[in-house]
Structure formats: C-alpha cells, structure tokens
Amino acid sequence: MTQPDSLKLVEPWTVHDSEDPVKRYAGQIPFDVHHLLLEAQQIPDPFFRANEASVQWVHERTWVAETVFEVAADQLTTQATLRLEFVDTHATVALNGTELGTIANQFRRFDFDVSWLLKVGSNRLTITLHDNAALGAERAAQQPFPVPWADMNNDIPHMNLVRKPQCDAGWDWGICLLSTGLYKAPEIVFHRDRLLSTVRVFQQHHADRVELEVVVDTDGPAEIEQTVTVALGDDEIASVTLAPGQHQGTAHLTVREPRLWWPAGYGDQPVYPLTAELDGQRWQRDIGLRALHWDLSEDDTGNRMCLVVNGVEIFAKGANWIPADAFPTRHTPERYEQLLTSAVDANMNMIRVWGGGLYEHDCFYELCERLGLLVWQDLMFACALYPSTPEFLEDVGPEIDWQVSRLQAWGCIALWCGDNEVIGAINWFDESRRQREKYLVNYDRLNRALEQGVTCADPSRLFWPSSPCNGSLDYGDAWHDDSKGDMHFWDVWHEGQSFSAYTEIKPRFCSEFGYQSFPSLRLVRQFTEEEDRNVTSPVMEAHQKNDGGNARIVEMFTRYFRFPVGFDQFLYLSQVQQAIAMKTAIEYWRSLRPNCMGTLYWQLNDNWPVASWSSLDYEGGWKQLHYHARRFYQPVQLFWLQEEGGEGLQLVAVNDLAESAELKGALRRHDLGGALLEQELLNETLAPGESRVLARMTSKRATAEFVTAFACAEMATGGQQFECENTGYFAAWKALNLPPATISVTTGDSPEGPWVELHCEQPGHFVTLEAEAPGRWSDNSFTLLPGEPRRVHWRGEALPEYRINDLQGSYQSVTSFQGTD
C-alpha cells in the first residue's frame, strides 16, 4: 500500500513581529523564535554571561509564522485535514486568510477540516503565536480561587495555568526563555472518510507465544465501510473492517517463540516492526515484546515497589530527564541519541521523564526502545497547584488521551505517573496551608480525572498517582516515609545534612535525590570572561539558579575536604563531592535489595550551561559523577560501606542479575604512600539477585590508611564478565595527609582511539582527566596506585590538550597530546 497522500509543511517558513511585518526571519521546522533571533544576530546569546535578562522582551511580542504551499487539483477530490502537534503554545491558526481557531495547549494534537478552504495552486498557512505569559495572567484572573504557582522556580507567574513545559519560565537549574514556536511540521492529510488517529498494543504473554491485541482508533465521519490492515513484520497480518459509524477496531496477532525485549543489562532488545494502514494512511512503530508489572505487595516493612520484566525482578537504575535544551529547536535526534546512549553506557536501565518538562518527541522513545531504557513517564504537572475547573479538565482530558495513546505501544514505557510533587506542594503555599482541605479536594478531582484518562487509554500499565507517593489514596509524607512507595530524598542538599543521612533511610524506590556541582572548566570558559571566573562572581551566580546553591557546595567542602586553591580546583572538587554524595546513597541503597529496588538520581542532563545536579553537562560531556555512575550501577559490583557506629568498613557484593556470579579478586589495606599492609583473597559465588557482606576491615590508624577491592565477576551462563573495583576510606579526606601522587604519562594511538597511560609514585585519589575538546574518556575519576598504571582512551573529537587533577591538587597542567605508532 502506498504512503498517505499528505503534505508535511517543513519549509519554507517566515516569522515576523506582528508590529514589524517588513523584517522577516526565514526558518524551517522545528523553530523557536528565540533561536531564530539568535541566528539572525537580533539578540545576544542568552547563555553567555548574564544575558538572560536582555532577551525577556521576546516572549512579550506577538509573532506571525507563515508558509506557502502548493495543492494539486486531484488532491482536492478527497477530504483534507490540517494536523498540528507540538505548537508552543497560545496560537491562532488561519488558512488563506480564514481563521480556523485558537489553540493553547502544547501537549495536544489539533485537527482542522480544511477541505473547504484549500484551493488549487498556492495556499497560505498562518500561525500567530501569542504571549504565553499574558495567557497565564488572564487565566489566573478567571479562577474561582487562587491557584498558587511555582514561585520558587518560575520567573514568570501563573505558568501552572498554561499547558506548556513549566520549566520554560525558569527552574532551579534552568534559564527563563519562555519559548514559542513550531516543533513538528504541520501536515495536510488527504484522506477518504476516516482519519487514522492512534494505535495501541496490549500484550499477553504465554510460555511459547505472545498474543497481541492491536486497537486502532480513527477520527472523521465514519460514513463508509473501510478496512484497516495490521502487520507485525512480514509474517503476521490481520485485517479489521470498520462498519459505518464505527471508529475503533481490534486486530489479533500471535507471535510464536518470541524474542523478548529486556531492559539494558538484563538481555537484548529485539524489536518487531508493527504497522497499521488505512486507505494509504500509515502508522508504524518498532516495538519490544515483554511482560511487565509492578510488585506492590505488602511485606514486613510496608509495601514493595519493584518492577518485574519477563518474570525477573529489575533493580531500576537511572536518572531524571529534563528537556534536552532551553532552545526547543535543538531537541534533535542526534542530541537525544548522545544523551540516552551516555545513560546506557553508565549502566542505566531507566529514565524518568520529569513532569515539569514535556512529553518527548517520538525519536526519544524510539531510542529508549532500541537502547533498553525503561521510561517512568510523568504527566506534565510539577511543583505547583493546578485547577480542577471544568474548563481545565476539558483541556487536559484530550491531552492525556492523546499522549498516552501516542506513546502506549512502546514496550519501554514502565508506568504513568500523575505528577511531580503536586500533592506535596499543598504544604508549600500560604493559601493552601490555610485551607488544606479545600486544596486537597481540588487536587483529588484533578488526579482522579488524570487516572481515568490514563486507564481508559492504557489499562495495561500502572497509574502511579504522584511522585513521591506512598500509594493510591495515600497522601502521607513520601519525602520521609521509607516503608512504601517512591521517595524524593532532599535532606542532604536542601536541608544541609551530611552525606551520612543517605544511609539513615531505607527507601523502597528513590526516584529523586541529588547533589550539585559546577560544570567543567572548558564549559565555564564558554559562558564567562576571565574576570568572571570566581564562584561568587555575578556571572557564576547567574548560572546558579538554586538560591544559595554555590554557598552550599562550598560549605560542604569544609566538612569533607581541605579547601581548594584556585578556580579550576573549585570546579574539580565540586564534581568529586557530587560523585561522593551519589556514590554514598546509591551504593548503600543497592546493598539493601530486595528491600530497595530502584534509584533514579536527579538529574541526568542540563538544558543550558549551569551549576546543577546533572551528571552530563550541557554539551553532553561526562562529569565525574557519570563515570562513577557507570561503576556504581554496574550489574555486579563491590561496595565499601561504613559500618553502623563508624568503627570500620564492610565490603558488600551485589548481583542484580538473574544468574549467579563467580567473584575472584582481593581486598587490600594500604598506607597513604601506597604500601600494601594487608591483603585477603576473594573467591565467592553470588546467587541471582543477592546482596551480601563479604568482609569487614577496621583500622587503628584511620587517618593514615585506606582500602581497595577488586574482582573479576564471571556470570554462570553466557560468559559475561564484569571488572569490579572500589576504594574505601576510614576518615574524611580533609583528615588525610595525602602525599603528592607525582603522576607521569605516556600516550599513543590504537584502534580504540588515542590513549593516555598514567603512572604514579604514590596513590592518586579521584584522578581525573579533563580534555579541551568535546568527548569523554573510557574511564575517569579513579584511584591510581603505584605499580598499577591505568590506560584510558579518548572518545571524541581530536584531542589537542588535556588536564589532570587529583585530590591532592598535585598535578595541574595542560598537556598536549602526541600519539605514538
């Protein structure tokens, strides 16, 4: 069957200020107005220094986007529908000078019948983009009672009343650009009667087969009989006949001896091409076949929260995802692939799409399906209160139906979550604290409507009311109750507790927790001048959106480290500190399995260059945390954990996989100069899913010694191997008189890329290479021991220069790379 007869209006487009129709900016889909103006040199780069304030006028203007397209006579013999998606946000749509309507929800799809307006030859589509801030203020005045907005995050009020990414108005890690634009090409679909809408897939797994129930939804008059053909590859084909008046049909397919899809680290990710065709209109997804459910059963502690895929309990390891860039134009497939591949390379198997951003583009979920990344999908409500008026629910209802139906077929979707921290936000604002019952009823009305919308579109998956949440209809304190549900644990960063606080709770599933660091020196140089390079300068503080954030980073230095000397050491040490914070939390919580079965740290990525909780900086470069994540998220690993009471260290081995692991290696005690004081061999078998204490070590000279452990873990089947390693300390680093490591290097080239080999005379701690080019190293932020050189490969653009840092600050130089044959 041929492709549908349609016009995707990608280019050419022009955009102009409604008050200046002469000056026009040329563009193509996707575009946002800020980015068009930046490319035309009409605004300064808002990421540079403190330029953010100078571009705020952009969102206050009305912008007119226009394109002209051709229609042939034979195309006018059928019905024609204009289909709009990813329009940001408040817009008036007109075709050939006739207004079709006004829309105001970036998360909805809008269809307009344009059969009566199209003409042979040239046609003009005009989309007028209005001020979204003005829309928020207008809606606030219409509310029956105040609906508090996220004033601690947003720089523009009442964005909770506008259905666009909440972080566009600024967040505690994000710039305020309040974008507007078109992010997916408008499409003119020529069709006969019905318009193909969505396709949903429900999987039933049996011992030797998977039964697929494929539900096809259509729009349009449905006046005639039509046939939908559904196919899974070339072998499984079924047809569904839609009678007059019928908009939905169901096809049944059977896959025998299926190749199952697994989360990353647990197996492969085979996908099957599923298609549905209706009179030339075509829908297609590459989907994974998997059985998936959540175990929320009651136990001695409270209730479990464990994801089970294909009968195997999965320890969810990952991070929270925010929009990839503050300029929506830069949300490209290449950007998505860079960031999501880095997540998998760090042994992650789950991404939480956070509720203050957007329902992502299809290519995001396509990548997650291919890479084995499970998706915790928030609905787009975050950190504020929201109305439950009939008007708001009438707008949100189609949004939920469309988004859930659009994404439902992908096997990677793990659950639907109602919101981010909205139930907790009732306690944040004076109005809602004073009238808690009123605002709680308001919340419940909206949340129930969301649940009904989700379960109607996708009854096969769990609807989780909120994050954090103790469970359905449980409005308890999920920030501190670790007996059930998912937690958000912010006592360390926001309340200033020490890192040991992470080991004082036993979460069932921790879906938010984090600690900040500064970006790399290379990135800081891109948004600063020389005089700005001080962590308390106005520019560095402009690139810190969390009130008091820089002070928190520096104050925590005083608890654990000797004070850094020099700006570059401030940046370096902040990343060491961030990595230690997350390492402390995740290693302890992983050791608690099966009590704890998930950790998603805040946050994976940045949307502009900023001090933040991310492990990937704005360019996608790996901070030290990301290298540590690859180690602490490795499926089989060794952890040094502080014993209760602080007397010594425990060596814990964890195996997340569904097969046993043979560990062979050693644990060692060293003095600070690197001399080996004690060694004990390891020869252990870890059962599937086991966490076990292997050994204990104490020291009478806590400030003069440290420990290491290493092992090769070989899995019982398949021969898969993991190199396990870890370093433990008996005292805070500031108490250690660490001698200079005296690091030397040799370099060379290989098929894996340029390499640098590091040698030391005395131990180097958190040894980190930082390149003066985009890319990453094969390993970084590691312990370097005398007599045990470490070779790391560069993966990125040409490597002109690199810098080496360690905790002693003893080797701080820029070295030119010269490869050898």
Description:
There is one protein chain. The chain is an alpha+beta fold. The strands form twelve sheets. The protein has a six-stranded antiparallel sheet with strand order 3-2-5-11-8-9, covered by helices on one side. Strands 28-27-26-25-24-31 form a six-stranded parallel sheet. Strands 1-13-6-10 form a four-stranded antiparallel sheet, with no helix packed on it. The two termini are 56 Å apart. The chain is 18% helix and 33% strand.
Q: Which features does this protein show?
A:
globular, six-stranded parallel beta sheet, disordered C terminus, 13 helices, 46 strands, six-stranded antiparallel beta sheet, single chain, 821 residues, alpha+beta
What's the overall average pLDDT, rounded? Answer: 95
Major sheet details: 6 strands, antiparallel
Low-confidence segments: 816-821
What is the strand arrangement across the widest sheet? Answer: 3-2-5-11-8-9
Q: Cα-atom Rg, whole angstroms?
A: 28 Å
Structure at a glance:
It contains 13 helices and 46 strands.
List the helices and strands and how they pair.
Blueprint: E1 6-8, E2 13-17, E3 25-27, E4 31-32, H1 33-39, E5 63-71, E6 79-84, E7 87-88, E8 90-95, E9 98-104, E10 110-113, E11 121-129, H2 132-142, E12 181-182, E13 187-191, E14 195-205, E15 209-219, E16 226-232, E17 236-242, E18 248-256, E19 272-278, E20 281-287, E21 292-295, E22 306-309, E23 312-314, E24 316-321, H3 333-345, E25 350-353, H4 362-371, E26 374-378, H5 390-407, E27 413-417, H6 422-425, H7 430-434, H8 436-457, E28 463-464, E29 487-488, E30 510-512, H9 521-527, H10 538-542, H11 549-560, H12 567-591, E31 598-601, H13 624-632, E32 636-642, E33 648-655, E34 661-671, E35 676-686, E36 691-698, E37 705-715, E38 721-729, E39 743-748, E40 755-760, E41 764-771, E42 775-777, E43 782-784, E44 790-796, E45 801-805, E46 814-816
Parallel strand pairs: 24-25, 24-31, 25-26, 26-27, 27-28, 29-30
Antiparallel strand pairs: 1-13, 2-3, 2-5, 4-12, 5-11, 6-10, 6-13, 7-12, 8-9, 8-11, 14-15, 15-18, 16-17, 16-19, 19-20, 21-22, 22-23, 32-33, 33-36, 34-35, 34-37, 37-38, 39-40, 40-44, 41-43, 41-45, 42-44, 45-46
